[in-house]
Amino acid sequence: MATLTSKGSLKIGYKGSLFQKPKCEYELNHVLPEGETPTETKLLVEAFKKLFTKGFAKLAAAREKAIKSAMEATEKDWKKKPPKDMDAAVKVANQMIQQGVDVWRNVEVPKLAEECIENVYAYMEKKLKKKLNRKKAKVVLKIVVLVLIVVAAAAISIATAGLAAPLAAGITAGVVIGMIATGVTALVKSGQIVYKEYNAYQGFLDKIKKDVDAIEKAIDYEIKKKKAAEYRKLGPKEKVKLLMGGTKAHVKSLNKHLDAAEARFILMRKENLKAIAAAAEAKEHWDKMSSHPNKAVSAEALKAKEMAGRTARTAEKFDEKLKAFAKLKTEVKAQLLRLDKTGEFSSDKVTGVLKFAGDHQEFAQSVVTGGKTLFDLTKKLNGVLKKLG
Predict the structure, then answer these.
(1) How far apart are CA 237 and CA 337, in angstroms?
(2) pLDDT in the model for residue 114
């Protein structure tokens, strides 16, 4: 495995006196997959280094600007209208500022690495004019433990939550609504990806069904013509049809569509797990908000809490349904092995599992709907809190 190391620090540029400058040092080890040959490995490493360096600089600049702007805006607002407990407010704000850095380091940078390695493979395939076996790159963080899917994806991001406005409106409710905003934003994004990938996944399952039917028809035709050949000589058209319409081409197509479905499945399930974590996190925060003394706030918070709980449960059920894909893959491989060894293939066994692996669009749609509903409730409640000021 090839390893690249990058280290440095974010340059926030905050010159105020109210907040602490966050710890921004980082050291990343990128453990890159090797190519099939030394030449491929060299190309992969060089292309990744070039792409990541450029993307990292852009990402760091955006995060530096966002954190600095939030710190300066909050300090300016607090000088005009100080929180009741300034010490407590500053303490919480400093935690949020640090978490803003941690989100960048723990979530955004590894995501950038994943995107870069995918782009590198696309570049290499074009350059080498052949398909490559994709392997994932690993990002090892030496400064902070990486919890990518469960916690960090729904952590407080100073840029996303809009630190200045919520904290100026009231430290306790503001911090909670900031947490909610970040978690719900993550949920909406994951839901959109889940739905998009599900549609692509279902499309490949439909193609698998057609491949299975085609294999069965090809086998039936071969058996029929073999029996006919015992009594007569096959005509030219029959020979061509046997040659062109045999099982080999359909098996190749089936493997291709199975691999494509699996690629969509992996990405879809990853985002669905993120959605589960984000919805569960949002439910906890809405629960805190439901005890707000203002009845309008608490009532909306209770609605959102229930919606977040339903969304989390729906995403969990969806995840259980998706596990059927592993059984589908196992059955397809077993039948293809049987076909290769004996010439027999049970399409009924494959289609029997296939129906459980798909037809779950209502779950994917519910994750999207839940995220959008929670997003709207968050905006509505944030407006109420600002009016309460």
Answers:
(1) 29
(2) 72
Dist CA 191 CA 183 (whole Å):
12
Q: Which helix (H) or strand (E) holds 29?
A: strand 25-32
> What single-letter amino acid sits at 158?
I
Residue 243 has pLDDT above 60, yes or no: no
Distance CA 143, CA 69 (A): 25
Query: How far lies 368's CA from each of 15, 195, 272, 342, in Å?
Result: 41, 7, 10, 46
What is the widest separation between alpha-carbon atoms in the chain?
A: 100
**Tokens 């792409």 belong to residue:** 51
What are 179-201's pLDDT values in tens digits? 677 678 878 888 888 898 899 99
| Residue 160 pLDDT grade (very low, low, confident, very high; cuts 50, 70, 90) | very low
Taking the C-alpha atoms of residue 144 and residue 161, their distance in angstroms, rounded to an integer, is 22
Annotate 7-44 with b (16+ C-beta within 10 A) or e (fewer): eeebebebeeebbebbebebebebebbebeeeebbebb
Q: Do residues 82 and 74 touch, judged by C-beta distance below 8 A?
A: no
pLDDT, tens digit (0-9, with 9 covering 90-100), for 307-346: 989 998 998 999 888 888 888 989 999 988 888 888 888 8
Query: Would you tell me the crossing angle of helices 361-388 and 171-229 to the nearest 10 degrees?
Result: 170
SS3 379: helix
Residue 159 pLDDT > 50, yes or no? no
pLDDT tens readout for residues 208-224: 999 999 888 888 766 66
| Three-state helix/strand/coil letters over 35-101 | CCCHHHHHHHHHHHHHHHHHHHHHHHHHHHHHHHHHHHHHHHHHHHCCCCCHHHHHHHHHHHHHHHH
CB 123 within 8 A of CB 70: no
